[in-house]
Amino acid sequence: MKKIILSVVMLSATFFVSQAQVQYGLKAGANFYTFGGDEVENEDLNSKFGLHIGGLVNFSVSEKFKVQPEIVFSIQGSKQTDGTDELNWNFNYLNIPIMAQFYVSNGFFLETGPQIGFNLKAEIKDEESGTTFDLDDEIKSTDISWGLGAGYKTASGFGFGARYNLGLSSIAEESDVDIKNRGFQVGVFYLFGGKKAKKD
After folding, report:
1. Gap between the terminal Cα atoms of the chain
2. Number of independent structural domains in the chain
3. In 56, 95, 158, 198, which residue has its Cα 20 to 30 A from 122's Cα atom?
4. Is-contact 62 105, C-beta < 8 A?
5. Using CA atoms, how far apart are residues 200 and 196, in angstroms rounded to an integer?
């Protein structure tokens, strides 16, 4: 799965860089992440608030169709209630989504695409005792997910959007443990530039 997605990303990037009008941009916003999967379906989990911030490149293939690779630092995880105690799962990821955007009307767009995430930190904190446990050896270094979203971009380049990321692969190192990242994001972005990419 990872090799297929990376191959598609590389081929797409090569094509769109040579053909498309290019804009660059920045984005930032809020995350509301938790876990899904068989391992946690009966657990008392709550969404964890976090932030995301990063950069993007928007390739305008046509007036209605655009492709947008991003590099985003993202604070994720979940909160879990265990009796009277609360456990705080703290995960940091460097995510690289590749979104296909379809502009439907007057700046409004729908988007979808794959995302690969690289784990930067994985730990769990017992809020009652203040003890933190390192989970780096128990969590995979990469995560594969799929994004679905919508947004609005003004003529000036400023915009806002919302996206849901559905984890496709378990993040646990143990093969028989099924835990997936699932999260909702809302945020703002700004695009600038707009020059035609040079052809060879």
Report:
1. 32
2. 1
3. 56
4. no
5. 13
What tens digit of pLDDT does each residue of 127-177 get? 888 899 999 899 999 999 999 999 999 999 999 999 999 999 999 999 889
Domain with 166 in it: 2-196
Q: Cα 133 vs. chain centroid, distance in angstroms?
A: 25
Q: What is the pLDDT of residues 59-117, one digit of tens each?
A: 999 989 999 999 999 999 999 887 778 889 999 999 999 999 999 998 999 999 999 99
124: number of Cβ within 10 Å? 18
DSSP H helices in 108-154: none
Q: Residue 68 sits in a domain of what CATH number?
A: 2.40.160.20
Among candidate residues 96, 113, 9, 100, the one with its CA nearest the CA of residue 60 = 100
Q: What is the pLDDT of residue 200?
A: 46
Cα separations in angstroms, 100 against 19, 59, 67, 70, 124: 15, 10, 5, 12, 34
Residue 64 carries which DSSP code?
S
What are the distances in angstroms from CA 136 to CA 17, 168, 175? 36, 20, 16
Which one-letter DSSP state was computed for residue 139?
B
Instruction: Enter the pTM of the model.
Output: 0.85
Contact 77, 33 (CB under 8 A): yes
- Fill in the DSSP letter of residue 50: E
* Residue 183: Cβ within 10 Å count: 26
